[in-house]
Amino acid sequence: MRLAAGRTTEYAAGLLGLDRTKVSNMESGVRAISPERIRILASNYECADERYVEALVAMADVGKRGWWQQYRGSLPQGLLDVAELEWFATLLRSYQTVHVPGLLQLGEYARAIFAAALPPLPDSEVELRVVQRLRRQQVLDRDGPVEYVAYVHEWALRMQFGGRRVMREQLHHLCQVSERDNVELRVLPVEAGAFPGAGHAVLYAHGPVPRLDTVQLDSAHGGEFTHSEAQLAKYQIHMDWWQDHTLSPQGSRDLIHSIARQL
User: What is the pLDDT along the chain (263 residues), one digit of tens a residue?
Assistant: First the structure.
């Protein structure tokens, strides 16, 4: 908003009576910002998009109480950002080619993934990540749960993270959770052949207003976030492709049950 108005951090700092470092920390999400300050900045930045401003105000109103803040200083910032992104989203869509989606993982499955990290994580760090990942799943169970559409490649369902028993339990869990009204799980069978993208995991979070849409990409060095109009348009096309080429929810459950019986 500030950049669109052609204003500097010094200008914003003067409006709020703060030093520029604190303004930079507010903009990057490290420091909390109050609803009143958002309205002051929006007014002086001549932002006429009232829905956008009110969506930011609503986020600021609960930012200090976000459960993910408990992990600040203990986990990488990217993990906290993903949790916050999911919490404020109105619709989540993701596709996975190697792992079961994080929002649908059981503890033992998640533990096997984190334990495979290089360089190896201490056991205490693995457990902290597992607990935080499981807590993220409350967005599916809370009052006013988020709608979630998950696309998964068949090979992600065949990789035995944690061994046969863990994977079998994980597959049964996928079938159960996919029966929820707010969860749609679709599988891309291997017979579908090539698929778009570089094989990395992608999360598309729809915000309360389109200007707050954000895409998160997994990488070996942590999550990357993008919200440029061109990138959002590209990943919307990707998500539409997966919707068109994956099995139906019931067909996906049938395939998952079949894979589980083979374990």
Answer: 999 999 999 999 999 999 999 999 988 877 889 999 999 999 999 999 999 999 999 888 765 578 998 998 999 989 999 999 999 999 999 999 999 999 999 999 999 999 999 999 999 999 999 999 999 999 999 999 999 999 999 999 999 999 999 999 999 999 999 999 999 999 999 999 999 987 789 999 999 999 999 999 987 777 799 999 999 999 999 999 999 999 999 999 999 999 999 99
**Can you tell me the distance from the alpha carbon of 67 to that of 69, in angstroms, rounded to the nearest whole number?**
5
Residue 158's DSSP bridge partners are none
- Phi–psi pair at 21, nearest 5 degrees: -65, -40
**Side-chain-side CA neighbours of residue 90 (13 Å):** 10
The whole-angstrom separation of Cα 165 and Cα 156 is 16
Closest CA relative to residue 59, chosen from 160, 179, 164, 209:
209
At 114, list the tokens: 């984190």
d(CA 85, CA 171): 26
Can you give the three-state secondary structure of the chain, one letter per residue? CCCCCCCCHHHHHHHHCCCHHHHHHHHHCCCCCCHHHHHHHHHHCCCCCHHHHHHHHHHHHHHHHCHHHHHECCECHHHHHHHHHHHHCCEEEEEECCCCCHHHCCHHHHHHHHHCCCCCCCHHHHHHHHHHHHHHHHHHCCCCCCEEEEEEEHHHHHCCCCCHHHHHHHHHHHHHHCCCCCEEEEEECHHHCCCCCCCCCEEEEECCCHHHCEEEECCCCCCEEECCHHHHHHHHHHHHHHHHHCCCHHHHHHHHHHHHHCC
